[in-house]
Amino acid sequence: LKTPLKQAATSQLVLTERQPDCQPLTTPPKPKETPPADPWTPTSNLKMLISAASPEIRSREQRRQLSDSSSEVLQTKHCLQEHLLRDEYEKSQPSRKEKSLGLLCHKFLARYPDYPSPSQKSYICLDEVTEELHVERRRIYDIVNVLESLHMVSRLARNRYVWHGRHNLPQTLQALKKVGEENKYIQQIQMIKKREYEHEFDPDGERNEEMASSFDSSEQSEMSFVELPGVEFRAASVNGRKYKSLRVMSQKFVMLFLVSTPQIVSLEVAAKILIGEDQLEDLDKSKFKTKIRRLYDIANVLSSLKLIKKVHVTEERGRKPAFKWTGPEVLPNTQDTKLEATSTTCSPPISESIPSKEQCSKALFPSKGKQNFTRHSSLIKLVKSIENDRRKIQSAPTSPVKISASMYIFLTFLLETSFSLFLSQMTAEEMQMKCALSSPEAIPKPEPSQQPALSRPLGVCPASHSSVSPVILPHPQSGVSYAIYLHSSQAHTVTTYSPGFMLQPLPCANVTGIKSNNTKVLNKITTEQGDTQRGLDEPTKSLAAEERPERKSETSSQRCLKRSQALQENNLIKRRKSDEESLDASLTFFPSGYLIPLTHCTHGNKAECSNKEKAGVCSLQHTAYSSPITGVIPMPASELKTVNIPAFHITPLNIMLSPNSIAAAPVLSNSCLNSSSTSSAPNPSSSALNFMLQHIGLIPAGVQVPANPVLQHVPVSSQSENSPGSTNVQEGKVIGFTFYSPINESNFLFSLQPPAPKEPQDPQAVTENFFRTPGGPNTEPSLSANSDGTQRTSQGTLYIPQRKLEVSED
DNA sequence: TCCTCCCGCCAAGCA
DNA sequence: TGCTTGGCGGGAGGA
């Protein structure tokens, strides 16, 4: 076994010895029969010869017999014998399937425990393995290389490896996911899909500019092996070939699964990406075929590990082989639920031992190496700030801030909207960190006695409605209605405050303008999400039903907060569930919006009202709701999950939000805004802001703050200064504002700003394009399936383009 | 016919 | 120099 080549060599020798005088071998002289259409191939010939020649003597005899060729009878006999031998040989030989790498890998894995005891190391001796498994050494290398890429084994010395089992797997997968994200594999996949859609795969084709830039950006990270601390990598050949190594390819392949949603990767795409990183210009067919071969090798091993499963993706151009990730879900660094529960330990899945938050933080924001995290320095501040505030809150005798329910709603919407965008810039780890730090006890719960007694809920949004509930709000001043998308929970809360208005559920497609052929998908997804939401909320709801009598006095704000907590607790489950559900949903975009409450007592008595309300006197029945700056912001379904973080509390904090993170725009059109802002009625934005500021006691009652001075442009970053969006903001429109909290002397900074377009264009167009209005002139803000709907600018900000939605997969 | 992937040549690099 | 390691592509088996 150690010398399989020698065997082959021997047989080849035999072959060469025999062939000169062995004509009949290729054309068995069967009487009255034409020679086989398919002449014997060298390989089958060889196989036959091996079997026939196994005893050397017989071989010689045969040769002698053949060379003699004196007797035709003998020859015929011999040929028949050979045929029989060949048949026997073929029957006795394991079939191709039985020799597959996958099966071999199964056998290999069966030799070692999944989780070996750390105390006793298992060593792998290649010679032993090859002998025991009756396999060529070469094949073992294939397996070992892939296992090495997952740090399940590591090379110790020549012929010797150490078996780690699956202990390192979660950590490895996390690392790979992170690197995959950094390498922008999602963009590359999308680019390839887009290109596929546009052109046929053209080996000699020019390098697509977009693709080139996408690859170029990833080339910075170069093809290298992702190592784990503590798992030393000692490849036999440390340079030269390492970049093409099966190990590296395997890691990249795994990365593709980990970063894509759904976690299905076609071989074609994977091969193209792997080639693309290597040398895109040599994208010829043979290279492509070779990559595919290797990917099959890798896929076989990964399948044996039950990390992936073969599937088929049916596209317009037919059925394509693909693989689906069936391995463990790779959570971003920590398991937030656990973290929240224990609150003192940061528990990464593998987590040998990362005992403190400091270490967890280190893991999240490692100082070494190039990190995309650099653009999220604000998050570090945020985390610290949250920590500080939580400390303050916990030590404070009473709740630090009493906010009204309506204020809470507004801010929740605002924060959710902004945070959904903001968080989309964050890596998964950062999000996890954020979730981990916003533990439920940090949420200030308003005291029921101090909350205004609320009117009964209208229940306008039926329970059966999806979690994203469109409602129409009439706008008394402009005479037009606003369509707002709300989560059912939020809509429910909102309707509590708006008894005076008819709120009508609308078909999603009508409001969003998403193409009708996608409506089904959308509805299905929304329904499913709604179901999920309901399902998850069920315990809460039933509890609520049981406790309804006592809870009548409970404020909406409290409910909202509690719901938030429930949502937060269920966040992880939801994410998992909706990940499954959103196989294609990731390509679908939901609108989101928020609502600004406006009181009737805008002129003059606002302060009074505000005061009254603070005292719980001001009846909310007098509160009218308008939506002067409602934005309809499309976002992927996946981000809706992100949106569900209302546990963020309204404690004054030093919050730095991305300057582009909050979008505010009139629902209908700019002309509406213009008419609104030029009318005698006060600017809704300023009214809203005054209302809010007074409402939460950030400005004294009676003080009216004009829109522009207060809603001043806050220089959040240099970018916002130069952003075409900010320069184009119309008068009276909120760009940014700061809340000053007298309670703990900290600022609450918001910035509202349209995104910077990729290229300079008409300011008006920028605004209109981004804040596409349902029912407006551009009624179809549909989005492209070729991208996740987002593009990052060089500053790392987010821009959501409005493009066609094309669901490519069945 | 095409997908799948076994097989082994042969070169790089190590001992 | 012999051995280990592993890239690579031909071509066979199977659907």
From TrEMBL:
One of its GO terms (biological process) is positive regulation of macromolecule metabolic process. It comes from the Eukaryota. GO terms for molecular function: DNA-binding transcription factor activity, RNA polymerase II-specific; RNA polymerase II cis-regulatory region sequence-specific DNA binding. The keyword Cell inner membrane does not apply. GO terms for cellular component: RNA polymerase II transcription regulator complex. Keywords: Activator, Cell cycle, DNA-binding, Nucleus, Repressor, Transcription, Transcription regulation. Residues 1-44, 55-74, 440-459, 526-561, 754-810 are annotated as: Disordered. Residues 96-165, 241-327 form the E2F/DP family winged-helix DNA-binding domain. The keyword Transcription regulation applies. Residues 57-66, 534-554 have a biased composition (Basic and acidic residues). Signal peptide: none annotated. It is found in: Nucleus. Residues 779-797 have a biased composition (Polar residues). Pfam families: WHD_E2F_TDP. Belongs to the E2F/DP family. This is Transcription factor E2F8. It comes from Tichodroma muraria. The gene is E2f8.
